Amino acid sequence: MIRTVLFDLDGTIIDTNDLIIETFIEILKDVVPAPFNREHIIPSMGLTLEQQLQIFTKQDDVSDYVTAYRTYNRTRHDEMVKPFPHVNEVVHTLAEAGIQLGVVTTKVRESTGRVLRMFELWDKMGTVVTVQDVTHAKPHPEPVLKAIEALGADPATTIMVGDSPADIQSANAAGAISCGVAWSLKGEAELRKYEPRHIIHDMRDIYALVGLERSAGEKR
């Protein structure tokens, strides 16, 4: 029986995909040789911002690019982001059913809190583990293990839901139950290479995994 559900943020419960891609293209348009587009960006999504920028720029010190990224991203954030379908319903229904919830993300705490509060999800999360809270980001098991410890949970009854190979690898290494989302920009076939225990095609598929009826959320 699943007692705990952990979610990745970007690309999993919150659709920030277009914002992330637009931001990279804008701040690197005079740095990375053309063509530089979404097809070049998608493979690295799920890594930390610093790791992505190092890949794109081929530079070790990317601190100025990090600042530029966060500045541009902040100006476009509120108008471009939204939850994926049924996220709010599922999160609220799981919380009401007594399932422990958390977020495990490679974002920083400020932007994580901002988007979760925008969509009334913050108060439903028993823990939020950001890239600033760990020494080793996903795909290392530390972020998932830190969330499990904070909730007093058991890895064997914890599912980690994410859209990237890093999410699946982190969950598997932590001894948790890994679950990929089929709406990942990387595609279901790519995620399956990393051996997730489950793949969901609709956020409401989580109900079956935790032992709730699919109609549970319709009562809200």
TrEMBL record:
Enzyme Commission number, as recorded: 3.6.1.1
UniProt superkingdom: Bacteria
One Pfam entry name: HAD_2
Protein keywords: Hydrolase
Class of this enzyme: hydrolase
MF (Gene Ontology): inorganic diphosphate phosphatase activity
Stored InterPro entries: HAD-like_hydrolase_sf, HAD-like_sf, HAD-SF_hydro_IA, HAD_2, HAD_sf, PGP-like_dom2
The name this protein goes by in its record: Pyrophosphatase PpaX
UniProt source species: Paenibacillus arenosi
